[in-house]
Design goal:
This protein has about 280 residues and is an alpha/beta fold. About 25% of the residues lie in helices and about 15% in strands. It contains seven helices and 14 strands. The strands form five sheets. It has a five-stranded mixed sheet with strand order 3-2-1-4-12, sandwiched between helices. Strands 6-13-10 form a three-stranded mixed sheet. It has a two-stranded antiparallel ribbon with strand order 5-14. InterPro entries: Nucleotide-diphossugar_trans (IPR029044).
């Protein structure tokens, strides 16, 4: 079975419709789409229990626990423990192309035992890391300034936008050559199976719960699960919901986003020895 999972927050309830509809309109549809809305939010203690209107085909799940942004996947990991279900998780502020799921399903046929994440990084591209024993081959990131076809399309789009054109801006593939990476960015989508994580993934320390990408990537590494980045998959379109209570602007447990990212990375290195 293949399921798509995501979470959202109360300020985005009225804007999540386009994302949900894009997930239902996939050329290779998932068997189910689960939207996790916890009964209580850490960030929104005054949440009154209201639910968003969702299109037919979306199943709302109401867990008691709030894992923060990692609620998009951890409730499904727990619920499907011991099964081979494929969990494709994503963000609530993006518009996913009709061929989005197909790219993951095709990659899975070639890489059966890795998390799949088309937008991802080597640890030393984000932080200081001298790791030498990375799985091979390593992915090669696309060079956006040197991608002449993309730059030409973007120039045409920019010119048209000056005259009122409101069509979608051209998007850029993050990875030029497929291979392994260390840290994913979940907005592009990530596909995992429940056994790719061990049970420590549910025990998220203060501050670290706010930076799900680094936490989940580190816990994959701890469990011995590599991250595979397929090539030439374009990123999803950013939607207006992104402006509603974005995590990158939040200060949670006394830490801003940059501080929380750094603490999570250091915690993974010191506690579990990943990304040395």
């Amino acid at each position: 079975m293949r399921i798509i999972t995501l979470t959202t927050i109360p300020p985005r309830f009225d804007r999540i419709g386009p994302t949900l509809r894009s997930l239902l309109r996939q050329d290779s549809p998932a068997d189910e789409v689960h939207l996790y809305i916890p009964r209580h939010y850490r960030r929104f203690p005054d949440y009154d229990g209201r639910l968003p209107d969702v299109p037919e085909g979306i199943t709302i799940k109401r867990p008691e626990a709030d894992f923060g942004p990692a609620s998009k996947v951890l409730h499904a990991v727990r619920a499907y423990r011991g099964t081979p279900v494929e969990i494709l998780f994503c963000d609530d502020d993006r518009l996913y192309r009709p061929d989005w799921t197909m790219a993951f399903f095709e990659a899975r046929s070639h890489v059966p035992d890795a998390a799949i994440a088309p937008i991802s990084w080597a640890a030393d591209e984000l932080f200081t890391s001298d790791q030498r024993d990375r799985p091979q081959p390593q992915a090669i990131r696309a060079n956006k300034p040197l991608d002449l076809p993309y730059q030409a399309k973007h120039a045409v789009w920019s010119l048209a936008a000056l005259f009122g054109y409101r069509g979608e801006a051209p998007s850029h593939a993050h990875i030029r050559t497929a291979g392994y990476r260390d840290i994913f960015q979940g907005y592009g989508g990530v596909m995992v199976r429940p056994d790719f994580f061990d049970d420590d993934v549910f025990d998220i320390p203060p501050v670290l719960w706010s930076v799900d990408d680094i936490w989940l990537s580190g816990m994959l590494a701890k469990a011995g699960t590599p991250i595979w980045a397929p090539a030439r998959i374009k990123g999803p379109r950013l939607l207006s919901a992104h402006a509603e209570a974005p995590l990158y602007q939040a200060v949670l447990d006394g830490a801003d986003r940059r501080t929380a990212d750094r603490r999570c990375f250091d915690y993974m290195r010191k506690t579990y020895g990943v990304w040395p």
